[in-house]
């Protein structure tokens, strides 16, 4: 495993990490989750990502139960939670969280942190993220609340996920002005279909402020792995109960074009003796702005294949990278 520093922070995370979005509680139950976590840890992964909203908090409980049963020493791994949506179903208004059970108020941030600690069964979170911007948010309130949680020892590092760069900049400047612990990372989507935010919008944040990036969806829910070449696969997360929205989220009305672009990766992968998934993950890892790429495997074979991306990374040369970029044409923003 390769380990990378989280921007200018002292924390070192594995270049590949493991997330619990969608898979935990759907395609994975307790035993399957435990086995995959053990496999990831045995291969050097030390960062495990979750959020309060993932399956109404059950994903965090599953992670906590698995970690406890595996007996890992607390100083050998890092876990993260994200706050905003609450534990209600934000796709079903009848089961949505109440106003004080969501958002980025001091009340919800503090209570959600305590609830996450209880679900994980730990004394502190290594990383705590504001899951998306809140239309009613106060930069000052968020920065002071996160600083206080750090001082209390409940969190070690904090940051944002999918925030506009201008808002992250405002957080950093407020924290600097008031001598507070600033945000140290952003967690954006990053893959061959979604590049602009990481490569352009966040460039100043990573270069000037030393923000680390832990990126998610390197395979665009399996599209870049070729799992949907003949249409959305029957066992896909896009067909999981309660996730009917995911197909629209992933394809954004461009299903045929996205699948065609993914297919154009196959000859390059074949030359490297790699799978398409390994090639796509290696491409994301190649970006020096990226601290860790979060994987979302649902089987041991899938995780083993994804872990092979580190070997492919060492084989990728500039000519092959240019061919990958050309394969995506207008879908890919220039570096």
Automatic annotation (TrEMBL):
Transmembrane regions listed in the UniProt entry: none
Start and end residues of each NADP-dependent oxidoreductase domain: 16-326
Statement: the UniProt record of this protein carries the keyword Thylakoid: no
Organism listed in the record: Bordetella genomosp. 1
Protein's recorded name: Aldo/keto reductase
Keywords: NADP, Oxidoreductase
Family indicated by similarity: Belongs to the shaker potassium channel beta subunit family.
Keyword Translocase: no
